[in-house]
Amino acid sequence: MILKYDEVVRSGIAKQVSDNIRSAIMDGRLKVEERLPSEEDLARSFGISRPTVREALKRLAAQNLIHSKRGPTGGNFVKRPDPEGLSKAITGAATLLVGIGAFDIDEIIVARLETETICCRLASDNRTEADLAAMEEEIRVQSSEALTDEDFCASDVRFHRALVDSTANGPLKLMMYTVIEAFIPITNMIVFRVRERRQVVAFHQEILDAVRARDVARATAALASLLRYISDSYVAAVAARESRAASAAITTA
Fold first, then answer.
1. Of the candidates 59, 78, 97, which is a domain's last residue?
2. How far lies 50's CA from each of 23, 42, 44, 66, 76, in Å?
3. What is the distance between the alpha carbons of residues 207 and 220, in angstroms, rounded to a whole number?
4. Residue 23 is part of a domain; what is its CATH number?
5. DSSP string for 115-158
């Protein structure tokens, strides 16, 4: 039997059913594009009503785990996992955790240093001319003095995304999605008032030049220098914010 109908409890039935089917999908008991039992069969097997089955299926569809097809051969089918969609869900949770202070700046910097060092090594081995061109384009964008802070931060994310893409390693790109899409924007929101754009661009250029030359040591050294600069900028930004808050308190006292 593929699905463990006997494991379902009566509390939160729709969620229990969707979790049961989700587990079958995630551990491979249900294969990609395999047709699920009909609503009637699921209701009978789980001992629940068809409306409850429909609610469970809606939950699975919202998680991009199943999709429906119409017609005589239609029904609900297991959907091929979408790495970007899964990554976005993880990133949303990570952004929330960073926002409420679950991770401090030192943890974020260490996480970025350790993971992006791996990316620098693989990028130096596997980068293509298209990868180099993508990073070079972002450096060109960042060099414009007319660029807004928001657009600079977006380009920063794209540069590091291009660095990760140049590793040509699918699992690593999936793992790095949260680091790039959550951690970089959060730190940028804090340091943008105190960091020097030209300094960031210089570090990016050094990383690019090293990856182009396939010089792993130089690339990782440039990355480490960039992250030290970001960490120092973060400390300066927090100090400035506390100073402004103290001044405001004195003024209103």
1. 78
2. 21, 8, 9, 17, 14
3. 8
4. 1.10.10.10
5. HHHHHHHHHHHH--HHHHHHHHHHHHHHT-TT--HHHHHHHHHH
- 94 touches 102 (CB < 8 A): no
Chain position carrying tokens 């960490």? 231
Q: How many helices (H) and strands (E) does the chain have?
A: 11, 2
Cα of 35 vs its chain's centroid, Å: 30
| Residues of the domain holding 172 | 83-252
Q: What is the pLDDT of residues 147-167, one digit of tens each?
A: 999 999 999 999 999 999 999
One domain, residues 99 and 67: no
Total tally of structural domains belonging to the chain: 2
Distance CA 22, CA 16 (A): 10
Tokens of 132: 């180099």
Q: State pLDDT tens for residues 198-227.
A: 999 999 999 999 999 999 999 999 999 999
Spatial separation of the C-alpha atoms in residues 226 and 156, rounded to whole Å: 12
Out of 78, 101, 133, pick the residue that ends a domain. 78
CA–CA distance, 60 with 247 (Å, rounded to integer): 52
- For 122-149, b/e burial (b = at least 16 CB within 10 A) is bbbeebeeebbebbbebbebbeeeeeee
Model confidence pLDDT, tens digit, residues 162-189: 999 999 999 999 889 888 888 888 888 8
Same domain for 103 and 44, yes or no, is no
Residue with the two structure tokens 């440039």: 222
